[in-house]
Amino acid sequence: MKNHILQIGKKLKSTKKLLLHDSILQNDIDFSYDFILPYSKADSFSNIKLVIIGQDPTIQSNKESSKKRQRKITITLDLNNKNGNLRKYCKLICENLDIDIDNEVYATNLCKCVFKGKPAYNGVLDKHSKYWIPLLKKELSVFSDKVIFITLGEPLIRQLIFHSSKKVNYYWDYIKETRESGGDFKCNQPFENFIQKRIYPIAHQPTWNRINFYKTYLSDYLEYIKRNEKQSTKA
User: Fold this and answer.
1) Looking at residue 36, what DSSP letter applies?
2) Using 50, 70 and 90 to split pLDDT, how confident is the model at 218?
3) Which DSSP state fits 47?
């Protein structure tokens, strides 16, 4: 696993050089920040049970306190920060899936650079994802189909999914009239997305924290993941 992450690090160095010479894309990136490496403390690929995919490491605020916090983010999803909200959220997900966040998880971002603005709402992701998706696909190709793949946030799945819905609440069977789940949970199949893995879309931590629907049904959706993975791996 260490060698894999080292290889990703080398790839990021070459990617950074390419982006620095791209007259259009370079304008979106804050190159004063390092590109962010994946997170995993697993000894080998065979230990990995869960892959968590995030969007990018950008803290979307121009406040001075946010800039200081951005400097401290050196690992995907800030998972090396024991007191961080993202780690606590990911740990909650892992505990519901009976997975050890430190020894059985691999976490990575689609875009591994820090953007100057809010990439999800100004068209930046649309431009950059075409560049980053092939790299992500290759990065994740080393993991078995028995591994669970979850995504965090709706802007991310809008980039990864090309067939079926790009709304997180669709996979959680949101019923608009009642604002409840009908319980008919779903995943996005490998032939429906660019990374060709079975994807389980989950709300990102700020959305989960703000919207009661996701708080109410998180444990139910995670139970569905466990059931569906058992059936899928038997097939």
Assistant:
1) P
2) very high
3) G
| Partners of 75 in beta bridges | 37
**Tens-digit pLDDT profile for residues 90-126:** 999 999 999 999 999 999 999 999 999 888 777 899 9
CB neighbour list of residue 184: distance below 8 Å, 6 or more residues apart: 173
| Residue 234: per-residue pLDDT | 65
User: What whole-number distance in Å separates Cα of residue 148 and Cα of residue 145?
Assistant: 8
Cβ 108 vs Cβ 139: under 8 Å = yes
For residues 106 and 52, is the Cβ–Cβ distance under 8 A? Answer: yes
> Is pTM, for the whole model, over 0.85?
yes
| Residue pair 51/149 in contact by the 8 Å Cβ criterion | yes
Pairing verdict, β 148-152 and 50-54: parallel
Strand partners, 39: 107
The three-class DSSP label of residue 114 is coil
| Mean pLDDT of all residues in 23-27 | 95
Say if residues 74 and 34 touch (Cβ distance below 8 Å): yes
Angle between helices 212-234 and 85-96 (to 10 degrees): 50
Radius of gyration of the CA atoms of the chain, in A = 17
